[in-house]
Amino acid sequence: MSKNQHGLARGLTNYGDMDFSLYLRRANAASMGYGKEILGKPVVGIGDTGSGFNNCHRHMPELIEAVKRGVLMAGGLPIVFPTISLGETFLSPTSMMYRNLMSMDTEEMINAQPMDAAVLIGGCDKTLPAQLMGAANSKIPVISLITGPQLTGHSEGERLGACTDCRRFWAKFRAAEIDEAGIEKIESRLVTTSGTCAVMGTASTMACITETLGMALPGTAAIPAIHADRLRAAEASGAQAAYLAQIDPDKQLIPKKIITPASVENALRILLAVGGSTNAIIHLTAIAGRLGIPIPLQQLNKLSDETPVLIDLKPTGDHYMEDLFKAGGLGVVLRELKPLLNLDCLSVTGETLSERLKSEPAYVNREVVRSFDQPIQKMGGLVSLFGSLAPGGAILKRSAADPTLFESEGKAVVFNSLEDLAKRIDDPDLEVEAHDILVLQNAGPMSDAAMPEAGYLPIPKKLAQSGVKDMIRISDARMSGTAYGTIVLHVTPEAAVGGPLSLVKNGDKIKISVKNRSIDLLVDEAELDNRRQKLVSNVKTKYNRGYKKLYYETVLQADGGCDFDFLRDPSLLKNETKTGGD
Ligand code: FES
Asked: Which residue's CA is minimally distant from atom 2 of ligand 1?
């Protein structure tokens, strides 16, 4: 009997007799109808994240069929395996709580099952990051197949795409600009096809980052979910994975040869140039952190100063992902950024970025992707702020914010939880004025809410109805990549672990300066000490079993990518904000 540790013979189940283990495995595999010849082929595992609770992955079955076709064509045996799927709007308290669980599921199933390469299919916000986190330390080649964005819908001649337009219409409804019937009519026209949100939200940003890292085939980030090219990309991903599975094990193109400090820097550049989601900085920090690659927020600021915003997509601009596809795709943006990129980085094709860019067509639609010399904004979409309110940093998506609010000092109007926010934000007696600063506490990773996308605090109804469209809002929460406004997020350390955010009281003065990258609470130290003494810890202790116990005992702050401490490379932990967990 062969001792070859490839294909189905990899990682045998231990019954104390390895020859018997292989015999038993082959007998069970044969029961699924496979013939002897195909059972001897290299195995390509296909990570299936289809779920009735994930509308963005509705087209998973046809993607899987196309990947299988590619694997067979290239001489491999495709075997589909399920993992957890995270449908963004179907999970409570938030999909973010389960990203690390999905990453563990993915990592362990790649390791524990006999496969020589894998294609992981994902798209909805947390799924691609979870899969990349899970794949980072893999000993076999892994290719990401992105599910692709939705096409836009229409209502009475107006083009609509999830979910920037969902928020825009909801804001109109809150401001009484449209009525109940109007908002109901729009509901079924916002999300009209399978695929991920149609704008440069978190899913699209992560798709662009995945392609830039080199973990997906070139040119695949922006192909719409239901386009035939998406199926061709699936077929090509399957074929490439089967090819990689047959390379000499010592020369295999495993993820750690692709996700390197240089490719992570390229991914940060792309995040900034596409005006991408604030969530992506947390996810990229977590992915890189699995391989010991740090992403200090100071590095983000340096890159942001040098990297222009080049694409005109919502929520920063006017277009949608399908327009980026038609305009030439992500390759156009990479070509414009070429002088700033590390061109020696490898992708899953085995080609360098330099080789890739030489071979691509030159077409571009300048309405959607601008040139490096005539950018939409001269500096990158994100900026991190530091100061007495956020010693570990905070994030502002300046490309989607109101520049007139960038140098501001205002009075804090504080909500101490999401429940408090929901109860009082529309109270006609709420003492708030347009130039005040809304502050939300206890919505960070260690809070009850587990860092939901709640940082887009609604404008208090009485101000919305008087025409106020934007205010400074500060929290330890996250924000959907499809949202916009002058919103400071991921304040670190968070309120629930006693960060300075927890000390803010109504009427305190807060000063923000985007120019100086600063965010400060203007309260004297003695008074803050006094408040600190009286602080009651909000750190979760009520879970004594199950996944939530693991979550609250090990989740890191935003500067650690909100990963679990035992999954992050230990070399990074000493420089990051300590979690409040024991
Ligand atoms: Fe899945 Fe937006 S809800 S990507």
From this structure: 197
